[in-house]
Amino acid sequence: MAGIELINQKVREQAAFVPVLKNEIGKVIVGQEYLVDRLIIGMLSNGHVLLEGVPGLAKTLTINTLARALDTSFQRIQFTPDLLPADLVGTLIYNQKDGAFVIKKGPVFANVILADEINRAPAKVQSALLEAMQERQVTIGDETFKLPSPFLVMATENPIEQEGTYPLPEAQVDRFMLKLKVGYPTLEEERRILDRMAHTTTEIPVHAVLHPDEILKARAVVDEIYLDEKIKDYILSIVFATREPAKYNLDLADYIAYGASPRATIHLAMGARAHAFLQGRGYVTPQDVKSIAPDVLRHRVIVSYEAEAEELDSEQIVGKILSEIPVP
Questions:
Q1: Given a cut of 70, is residue 163 above it in pLDDT?
Q2: Cβ neighbourhood burial of 113 (10 Å; 0-12, 13-18, 19+)
Q3: CA–CA separation, 113 vs 151, rounded Å?
Q4: For strand 152-157 and strand 256-258, is the pairing parallel, antiparallel, or unpaired?
Q5: Least confident residue range of 40-49, 94-103, 119-128, 248-257
Q6: CA-based angle 284:214:113, to the nearest 5?
C-alpha cells in the first residue's frame, strides 16, 4: 500500500496542471468536457486522436485552443484533394547558386498537428501522415529526420459529406489511439455559445499554461500508475471478446467481421492509466477501462454485412461487450 500511496502523491502533484489547462480551454470552448478530457488523455498517452462529427461542433476550435494553451509549436493542415505528400512532410529544393539540393521541411515538423478533414486528401497523403504518426520520423530524399517530442496528431473528419472524400482504410484508422464522436451541445450550452460567440470579433486570448517538458514528466508518472493483474485480465477479456465472442457467451460472432488488434490492448491500458491520472488517482479501476473502451474500440471493431443489415454499428457491439463481460 505504501507504493500506491507514493504513486497517488506523485499523480496529485503532477496533475495540478489539469484544472488550469481545462480552465484556459474553457475560456473559449463551452461544454465539450468529454472531448477536452479525451484530447488530454491522448496527449498524456502519446497517442493520436481522430474526431468525427458534423461541421460546426468546434472540433477545429477545440484542438486549436488546446494547442494555444500548450507552450508548443502548432500547425494546422487543411487536407484537400490536390494536396501532395511533399506539402506535408517537405521536399528537396534545387538551389541554383551552388547547384545543390536543400531540404525544406514541411508543416508536419511541429509538436501538435491538426489534420483538418483528413478524409478530403487522397490515400498517398493520408499514408504520409500516418507513417509519420507511427514512426515519429520522416524521410526527405535520402535523409531521415526525427519529429519533435511530444508529437501529437489530432485529425478531424466529416461523416456526412462523402462526395470528394477518401475514407480512411480500417488498417490506417487503427493508428489512431482514440476515435471520438463529437455530438451537439445541450440547449443551455448552445445559449452560452450564442452569448459568447455571436459577435463580429470573437478572438478570446488564451495563455500557454503547459510546457512540453511538463507533458513528458506527466507521461512518466502516467506510466507508473498501478495496473492490477485483475484489471489486465479485464482488458484482455474485452479485447478477446471482440475476436472470439462465443467463448465469452456473447451471441455476436455473426456481427463482427474483424476484432480489435493487439494495439487496442496496449491503448486500453495506456488510456485507462491516463484516465486515472485525470481523476488524480495512482491506480486503475474497472471504471477507467469502461470509460475509455468505446473510444479505443469503436474504430477497431469491423462489423459484418449481417450487422449492417440489422443496423448494428461497432458502437452498439462494443456497448454489448462492456455490459456482458464480468467486472473484476
A1: no
A2: buried
A3: 8
A4: unpaired
A5: 94-103
A6: 90
C-alpha cell of 191?
445559449
Show Cβ contacts of residue 149 under 8 Å, excluding neighbours closer than 6 positions.
111, 136, 212, 216
Q: How far is residue 280's CA from residue 110's CA, in Å, rounded to a whole number?
A: 29
pLDDT of residue 5: 82
Q: Which DSSP category does 253 fall into?
A: G
Q: Which cell is 77 given?
A: 493542415
The three-point CA angle 238-59-280 to 5° equals 55
Asked whether 106 and 147 are in contact (CB, 8 A), the reply is no
pLDDT, mean of residues 168-196: 80
pLDDT at 33: 82
CA–CA separation, 311 and 321 (whole Å): 17
Q: What is the pLDDT of residues 315-328, one digit of tens each?
A: 888 899 999 888 88
Handedness of CA 27, 32, 36, 39 (dihedral sign): negative
* pLDDT tens digits along 17-74: 888 888 888 887 777 788 888 989 999 998 899 988 777 777 777 888 888 888 888 8
Residue 202 reports pLDDT greater than 60: yes
288 contact partners, CB below 8 Å, separation of at least 6: 272, 273, 275, 276, 279
Question: Which alpha helices (DSSP H) does 198-228 contain, by range?
Answer: 212-224
CA separation for the pair 145, 185 (Å, rounded):
41
- CA 225 to CA 282: how far, in whole Å? 5
Bridge-based pairing state of the strands 152-157 and 178-181:
unpaired
Q: Taking the CA of residue 97 as centre, how many other CA atoms within 13 Å lie in the half-sphere pointing to its CB? A: 1
Distances in Å between the Cα of 328 and the Cα atoms of 230, 233, 237, 321, 325 are: 6, 9, 11, 15, 9
CA 180 – CA 50 distance, rounded (Å): 6
Distant-in-sequence, close-in-space partners of 9: CB < 8 Å, separation ≥ 6: 282
- pLDDT, average across residues 205-229: 88
